[in-house]
Design goal:
Blueprint (H helix, E strand, L loop, with lengths): L2 H8 L5 E5 L5 E6 L3 E6 L4 E7 L26 E2 L24 E7 L5 E8 L2 H6 L4 E9 L3 E9 L5 E3 L1 E3 L2 E3 L6 E4 L5 E4 L5 E4 L4 E2 L4 E5 L5 E6 L4 E8 L3 E6 L1 H7 L11 E8 L5 E3 L4 E11 L1
The structure holds 6-O-phosphono-beta-D-tagatofuranose (TA6).
6-O-phosphono-beta-D-tagatofuranose binds next to strand 20 and strand 21.
Amino acid sequence: MTLAQLNAEYGIAGKVEFIEGGGGLTMIRVSTPKAGALISTHAGQVLSYQPAGEEDILFLSSKAYYQDGKAIKGGAPICWPWFGPDPEGKGRPGHGFVRNRPWNVTGTEALSNGDIRVTLGLTDTTETRAIWPQAFNLTQEIVIGDSLNLALITRNTGAETFGITQGFHTYFKVGDISQTRVLGLQDCSYIDKTDNSAEKKQTGEVAIAAEVDRIYRNVGNTLIIDDKALDRCIQILSQGNKTAVVWNPWEKIAREMADLEDADYQRFICVETTNAADDVIGVAPGREFRLVADYRVMK
Ligand code: TA6
């Protein structure tokens, strides 16, 4: 659909506008008295969420790619139907195939409390079935208000049960990584991907002073990013996940990533609401599964 058609069908005066974004991609600008947001229809990805009077909670790389077939570095990428490397080792893209392609806009709504809900979707096509042979309907509900609420709903429209791993691979903006802590993971065991996937146990808060790439198991539903430099905390509430990932590439890997500035590792942390590792979700024919992450700034 053209921008004019999208605005005619889904625009909401003064609140939801379809615009041309980076690389000519279609983006959705949401404005409410509580917060502003920018959503890319490519990848179905929230790129910005800025509560009134606050800095953005999301990091977006100034060197991000905006093109078909590529992931956008930053915001809240969707990993689906697998999290991490191709589980079958067939060379398919890491973190699945929905963060590399355009999504459909399926609805916009101004809710009675002033929040805005944007709904995006994807269904299987010949192209997706060549990558992953399942029939599905994937929906993302994005609610912008005092918090940013993301729900990823997987429906199995085929005839056999399928298994998925998935996640919100969210890049949170921080003032200074060395003054940032993640709270709520103490005593959880984790897979340390920087140490041959060794199983370890978290003691106390998570501090970042080197590359960190961990899948935490049996996590609770509340995590906090404590950001001393920006003098704020971001609360992450989740539903549907047993695992959470904490990732920061640190200096060397950041330098090797063409879509990051060398010093960007100091400016973000990924704290990801996931079904990863053995947290595999089976979805039976006709059934659906809902993964939810809710982000809110706390002073
Ligand atoms: O979620 C953590 C992780 O899987 C890391 O292992 C690292 O490879 C990173 O994601 C890559 O993220 P990107 O957005 O660059 O694909």
